[in-house]
């Protein structure tokens, strides 16, 4: 949440690192255990079919196989959590919980707008075969010029129209998100009591929350999660989702349903 964004991010990284190390150690231990078990069986020793030891021998060999499998599973888990550490650390997505979200979105919009202008100007230069003019553009290089003048699989030169269209769509999307974040800056924390439940606009946590007097029934909990997309947060003692127009709308929509169905 907004008030402890960096702390929560670091906690996720620390947890993933801890699990990676824990499973790596477990994998080594299990592999050694399986090797120790296998060392008891002479090299190349087959199962003595029909011998009184056949059943116990098969069980013993199955135990060895299962232990090796557990070692491989622990190694896979260690790799999974190690990848998770890298993913969290390298994630450039802008979270609404980030206190710097608005500034990051403004910077991203600026980058995309400059890219849009560059692509449009570059296409004009390619069309006119004006290499000199192209190289005067900011960010232009000889390598980019050569790439733009190499026909693609549809024999097109320059930046294809879909690149400009998609980039422009991203700019519009980010501007809408920026405008919503700006509106949320002017929202004050507020608690509204209803019959059996409180609606809380928690600005510090950046969440719209539903706090019940009593534990809601299973059907109500399922409705909250599956229909209205609220999640239970034990640390807050509340069902919640991000504080934005959509979250507030869904909270009110749920309260209307709750008033009609709580009985």
What is this structure, in a nutshell?
The protein is α+β, with helices and mostly antiparallel strands.
What do you see in this structure?
The protein is of the alpha+beta class and 263 residues long. The chain folds into three domains: 89 residues; 84 residues, no CATH class; 72 residues. The chain is 62% helix and 10% strand. The protein is built from eight helices and five strands. It has a five-stranded antiparallel beta sheet, with helices on one face. Strand 4 and strand 5 form a beta hairpin. Helix 1 runs antiparallel to helix 2. The longest helix is centred in the N-terminal third of the chain and has 37 residues. It is flat. The two termini are 33 Å apart. The mean pLDDT is 92.
How are the SSEs placed, and which strands pair?
Layout: H1 5-38, H2 54-90, H3 101-128, H4 131-135, H5 142-148, H6 161-184, E1 190-194, E2 197-202, E3 207-212, H7 218-227, E4 231-233, E5 238-242, H8 245-261
Antiparallel strand pairs: 1-2, 2-3, 3-5, 4-5
The helical percent reads: 55-70%
Q: Unreliable stretches, pLDDT < 50, 5 or more residues? A: none
What is the mean pLDDT? Answer: 92
- The 3D shape can be described as flat
Largest sheet, strands/sense/barrel? 5 strands, antiparallel
What would you call the quaternary organization? single chain
Helix-strand topology string:
HHHHHHEEEHEEH
- What structural class do helix, strand and pairing data support? alpha+beta
Q: What is the total domain count?
A: 3
Radius of gyration: 30 Å
As laid out across the biggest beta sheet, the strand order is 1-2-3-5-4
Q: Count the helices. How many? A: 8
């Amino acid at each position: 949440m907004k008030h402890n964004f960096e702390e929560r991010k670091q906690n996720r990284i620390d947890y993933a690192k801890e699990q990676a190390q824990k499973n790596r150690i477990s994998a080594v231990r299990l592999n050694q255990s399986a090797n120790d078990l296998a060392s008891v069986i002479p090299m190349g020793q087959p199962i003595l079919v029909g011998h009184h030891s056949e059943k116990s021998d098969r069980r013993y060999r199955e135990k060895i196989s299962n232990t090796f499998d557990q070692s491989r599973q622990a190694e896979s888990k260690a790799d999974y959590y190690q990848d998770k550490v890298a993913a969290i650390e390298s994630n450039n997505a802008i979270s609404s919980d980030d206190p710097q979200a608005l500034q990051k979105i403004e910077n991203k919009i600026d980058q995309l707008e400059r890219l849009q202008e560059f692509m449009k100007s570059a296409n004009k230069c390619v069309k006119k075969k004006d290499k000199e003019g192209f190289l005067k553009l900011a960010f232009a290089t000889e390598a980019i010029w050569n790439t733009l003048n190499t026909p693609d699989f549809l024999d097109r030169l320059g930046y294809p129209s879909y690149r400009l269209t998609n980039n422009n769509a991203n700019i519009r999307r980010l501007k809408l998100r920026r405008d919503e974040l700006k509106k949320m800056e002017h929202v004050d924390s507020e608690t509204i009591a209803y019959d059996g439940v409180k609606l809380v606009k928690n600005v510090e946590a950046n969440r719209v929350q539903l706090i019940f007097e009593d534990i809601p029934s299973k059907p109500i909990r399922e409705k909250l999660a599956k229909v209205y997309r609220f999640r239970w947060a034990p640390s807050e003692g509340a069902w919640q989702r991000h504080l934005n127009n959509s979250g507030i709308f869904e909270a009110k929509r749920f309260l209307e349903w709750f008033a009609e169905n709580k009985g």
